[in-house]
Amino acid sequence: MSDYNFAYLDEQTKRMIRRAILKGIAIPGYQVPFASREMPMPYGWGTGGVQVSAACLTPDDSFKVIDQGADDTTNAVSIRKFFEHTAGVATTEHTVDATVIQTRHRIPEEPLTEDQILVYQVPIPEPLRFLEPRETETRKMHALEEYGLMHVKLYEDIARHGNIATAYAYPVKVEDRYVMDPSPIPKFDNPKLEMAAIQLFGAGREQRIYAIPPYTKVVSLDFEDHPFDPSKADHPCDLCGAEHTYLDEVIIDDEGGRMFVCSDTDYCSKRQADGHRGRLSPIEEAAE
Amino acid sequence: MDIQSLSGGFENAPVQSAHAFRTALNVLSRPGTIMELRGANAPAPVSEAAATLLLTLCDPETPLYLADTHDTKEVRDWIAFHIGAPLVGRAHAHFALGTWEALSPINTFPIGTPEYPDRSTTLIAELDELNEHGASLTGPGIKDRAHLGLPEIDAFQMNACLFPLGLDFYFTAGTRVAALPRSTKVEAD
Ligand SMILES: [Zn+2]
Questions:
Q1: Mutation choice for A interface testing from B27, B29, B124, B137 by most A CBs within 10 A
Q2: Domain boundaries, chain A
């Protein structure tokens, strides 16, 4: 084991990342700088999330990777294989069996438990970046809780569109202190940010780690006259009939036919296995 | 350097430190939770839990302060051999180790800056015992309310008032560990 780095990274690098994770837990929503390492995969493939997972995984873990809700995309499969090879960790596609879940753009539908860690891949960790490109300035704004501009931007959205148009990476305030980017999850997922599991966020290119401990107060920014609306689609899943999940629109033929299915593929198949049916479920032969 | 200083490290560092980190993460994420933490043995009076924390989190990049109770030649040698953390005064410490009495007054440690609240000291306070009775805890990581026997109340209340600045604490006793981040609100029960 001595000439082999468990989970790819050397011990000193993992210690540095682990210290950043602990600071993130102690200061919920605050972006902790860390010295991101080159990983054998391009940025945009979640190198921040991969480094956080590498620092967290033990050989006893059961690891799941989801990309937009699916376990079988190229990105998800590569990351899963990476940790199978470098950490010898068991992998799973079942949310309930996973102890560490790395995700891009979704929170699983199945409520997570105290025994789980959810690791997010984050492209742009700074929620104020589109207002202010300079890091020194955004850092000052966080230090002084200067979030007025953020509210102005959201209110301009309402003036222009009649509602807040931001559908992904909808900003939240953590424990009444830091405004935080929840990564590009749909705002449908925002209410789930208050959960029993530990949530860790890793941004590789931008070299930031932040965290939400279990049961931490997470509020989506809104206004009294325009309360936050997670905006649920107004149809059920065409495969499992769920009326409470986030749906993807899928084109099914050349005539423009389309269907709506749960973006969380594991959740949808589990419901189908449990006997739930949707509008386009295959017709089953009647049991004799 | 005697034999005691050369022994007591991890036999399988990558795996043992991964498990130890998960414990450190779990107790800090759930203030009041007490867990077992084993694997490293440093010379007395360093507890097994504290030695395992040091080995998991500290290295040449993390200046360490040893309070009087733990500042012995044997402990220094052990740290030099296994960890390599430079030993420094309170004002420069990323980590600090000692009994609660020896670490006090805690307002002598860095609490971070408004722009970098993470540039603060993490204290490892050795206690005689750890139990889930005592001070009442609320805040991030705690569903309703948790309880933890703390050596005092005032210091932690004042620390929480500094949030998002402030100190974070690990409490160790034998092979047991608990933690208290700066975000926890503490009340006498
Ligand atoms: Zn479905």
A1: B29
A2: 11-132+168-215, 247-287
Q: What is the pTM of this model?
A: 0.96
| Contact state of A56 with B25 under an 8 Å Cβ cutoff | yes
| CATH architecture, range A11-132+168-215 | 3-Layer(aba) Sandwich (3.40)
- Asked whether the beta carbons of residue B18 and residue A6 sit closer than 8 angstroms, the reply is yes
B47: domain CATH number is 3.40.50.11310
**Average model confidence (pLDDT) across chain A:** 93
CB-based contacts of A2, cutoff 8 Å, min separation 6: none
Q: Which of A123, A118, A81 is nearest to A98 (CA)?
A: A118
Does this complex have an ipTM over 0.95? yes
Determine how many CB atoms are found less than 10 A away from the CB of residue B80.
Answer: 14
With cut-offs at 50, 70 and 90, classify the pLDDT of residue A1.
very low
> B26, B142, A186: which is closest to B37 by C-alpha?
B26
Asked if B59 contacts B30 with a C-beta cutoff of 8 angstroms, the reply is: no
Containing domain of residue B111, as a range?
Answer: 3-187
A33, β-bridge pairs: A208
B1, two tokens: 């350097």
